[in-house]
Amino acid sequence: MNSLDALLDRQVLFFGGKGGVGKTTTAAATALAASRRGRRVLLVSTDPAHNSGDVLGRPVGPDPVDIVPNLRALEIDATRESARYVAEVKARVASLFGESILKEAYRQIDLAASMPAAEEVALFDRIASIVVDAADHADLIVFDTAPTGHTLRLLRMPDLMDGWLRALTRSRRAMLGIQQDDRTDPILVSLADRLDRLQAFRARLLSGRVTAFVLVLLAERLPIEESARALSQLEEAGIGVGALIVNRVLPTGSPDPFLQARQSQEAEYLREIDTRFASRVRRRVPQLPRDVHGLDALETIAGALFALGGPLAFASDVGSIGG
After folding, report:
1. What is the secondary structure of 30-50 as a DSSP string?
2. Which DSSP state fits 65?
3. Which residue, 177, 187, 193, 189, is CA-closest to 129?
4. Is 318 helix (H, G, I), strand (E, B) or coil?
5. Do 261 and 225 contact (CB within 8 A), yes or no?
6. Mean pLDDT for the chain?
């Protein structure tokens, strides 16, 4: 069995890497491959520079749309999510407090919403909701993420949010003069519910049987170094890395001197990748003669990734899927 097939048995996959390495293409091809095998798949783009619709060859927006049988896709807009998140918070506040303090409460909420991290918090909240709630509607959720640094900040958010929610809970208990949660207090109930959802998301994120992170890179210096850093940081955070996909590998045998020089340098980087990431599953995907656009092109990439057949399914896997 192709060793990458183990990825398709997970429930959540995050595709990450340096900008421009082909995260969207490989994520969409993986989602398509899983759907062809009968799994219900939701492809989610969290990258502000959305192009999943371009790759899939049809419009994709903030609500799930059907692409092919068993495959749906959506794009999360951080600005839209932030506005929705603020509106929900204001609605909860309005149900808890009297008119006399609502104006000041709203002012504080709007001030917090203007902070640089507000959109990241809202984006994280939507991602967590999808992971926790979509299990009833999807067998596999594939996330096409923003460039590595932004994605790693989002994946560290559970620890930050956990500490913040627990601090708010302690403050509320002190205000009420109680030691335990009071299920009659709406604020404590809301905080407890959010903590429960956060812990459910964290449990799925850190489970090697549920979630894997797939690093996409090119056989070039900067993507290699960024992948090495990301691998270390993901392991430190307890998030399993399922595979590394080396994208856009040049075909060999060209008589052109320029292409021969590029192939020679690429060969050096491919050997370095094999050495530095020797214990990891690595998959090479060839450079296509044309841009990837539409389902036919994605089928070709899926064939290269999962050995589904076809002229480009020549790359070999090394290593084994880790937990």
Report:
1. HHHHHHHTT--EEEEE--SS-
2. E
3. 193
4. strand
5. no
6. 84
CA 297 – CA 88 distance, rounded (Å): 41
End-to-end CA distance of the chain: 18
User: What value does the CA radius of gyration of the chain take, rounded to a whole number of Å?
Assistant: 22
* Cα–Cα distance, 106 to 244 (Å, whole number): 46
DSSP state letter for 199: H
Strand-strand pairing, 241-249 and 65-68: unpaired
Query: What band does 311 get if pLDDT is binned at 50, 70 and 90?
Result: very low
Question: Which tokens sit at 289?
Answer: 């003669």
With tokens 């045998």, the residue in question is 253
Residues 6 or more apart in contact with residue 291 via CB below 8 angstroms: 297
The alpha helices in 57-208, defined as continuous H runs, are 78-96, 99-113, 118-133, 148-155, 157-176, 186-206
When mean pLDDT is compared across 83-87, 238-242, 268-272, 296-300, the lowest value belongs to 83-87
SS3 state at 321: coil
N residues, the chain: 323
pTM of the model: 0.85
All residues at 6 or more sequence positions from 86 whose CB lies less than 8 Å from its CB, including other chains: 109, 110, 113, 118, 122
How far apart are the C-alpha atoms of 66 and 133, rounded to whole Å?
18
Distance CA 57, CA 45 (A): 15
